[in-house]
Amino acid sequence: MKTKEERKETFQNLLVPELGALFRTALRMTRNREDAEDLMQETIAKAFAAFDRFEEGTNFRAWIFKILTNTFINNYYRVRDKQKLPSLDEMEEETAFQPAFEGATPEEALLNTLTREDIIKAIESIPLEFRTVVVLTLVEGFSYKETAEILEIPIGTVMSRLHRGRKLLQKALWEYSNQKNTEKENGREWTVKKS
To answer: Has residue 13 got a pLDDT over 60?
Structure first.
């Protein structure tokens, strides 16, 4: 049996290396710094309260991300129900796009026109169910199996949502790129604001 201080120290040692990734994920989920900070606080409080149930030697990273994701999803649905936001079934699927670049590969066209902020905005524009899977697998590097465990959904659902999420992300990136090219053609210059 560990003392309260030993338990707290163990928790902190496991948590600290994950704070950056947790905050990035919280920020991508909430799309708002203040909400991300609130989500982080709630996640850490819940994780510490449940730390006695964490099995030492298992994947702490997956465990804490599961708490973060579940906390966000529970809060999202609570807010959605109050504000009458659309459900996934009500959202229109638009995954087709037509690239408007000639003489360049799609990758070259995107690299020449998109900024880091554009990519973040594109990720944030994806509906929650897909954004969560995209962030956990593509951004944070969790495997399909780990993502399935974190979200408590089958691996097939992870793969399906990731496929559709990639399509939606691809479409959003093309739209940002097309918009920037159109504005350049119209003589307007783009500048990147440092944050």
So the answer is: yes
* Residue 150, token pair as written in the block: 């974190």
Q: Which residues contact 110 (CB under 8 A, 6 or more apart)?
A: 173, 174, 177
**Average pLDDT score, the chain:** 78
Domains of the chain are 4-85 (1.10.1740.10), 89-185 (1.10.10.10)
Q: In angstroms, what CA-CA distances link 97 with 15, 88, 149, 170?
A: 41, 21, 32, 9
CA 16, 194, 25: angle at the middle one, nearest 5? Answer: 35
Per-residue DSSP letter, 18: G
Using CA atoms, how far apart are residues 130 and 162, in angstroms rounded to an integer? 6
Locate tokens 């129900």: which residue? 81
- The predicted-structure confidence for 55-105, as pLDDT tens digits, reads as follows 888 899 999 999 999 898 888 766 655 555 454 444 444 333 444 444 455
> Do 129 and 86 touch, CB atoms closer than 8 A?
no
pTM, rounded to two decimals: 0.57
Residues 122/172, Cβ–Cβ less than 8 Å: yes
Task: Return d(Cα 20, Cα 65) in angstroms, integer.
Answer: 12
Record the tokens describing residue 25, joined without a space: 């994920």
